[in-house]
Specification:
128 residues; alpha+beta; 3-stranded antiparallel sheet
């Protein structure tokens, strides 16, 4: 899967135009015919409307679309969650065994502060 980020309709349309023409050239279509192709405009409009891109861009400043291949090898695009910044990604995993009392304390702390256990552990560690 690949994620693409756009901040305007024009960017999305230009991207699809480039890909559309790239595929047509790869398929061996003559340059004259490729220049006359406009199917990418319909596809851009369809994606824009299906994913409520205008609303997302207004709210978040950009829209991220996920691109993948289905079982038939066809490409699909859909709106997805914006990428996390590298510094926000959690890259380490830890499995811990706790006695009943410690586990209950952790559960209470997490519940009292409205968070899950993992977030509670990270919060407690940051306070140290």
């Amino acid at each position: 899967m690949k994620q693409l980020t756009f901040s305007s309709y024009e960017e999305l349309e230009e991207f699809l135009k480039h890909k559309f023409r790239e595929k047509a050239a790869y398929a061996g279509l003559p340059e004259k015919d490729i220049r006359q192709m406009t199917g990418y405009k319909d596809r851009a409009q369809q994606l824009w409307e299906e994913n409520n891109c205008a609303e997302v861009i207004e709210r978040e400043g950009e829209v991220t679309l996920d691109v993948w291949l289905d079982v038939d090898g066809k490409r699909h695009i859909k709106r997805g969650r914006p990428r996390k910044k590298t510094e926000d990604k959690l890259t380490r995993s830890l499995h811990v065994r706790l006695d009943e009392e410690s586990f209950n304390k952790l559960e209470r702390y997490a519940e009292d502060h409205g968070m899950d256990r993992s977030t509670a552990v990270r919060t407690i560690l940051k306070k140290m």
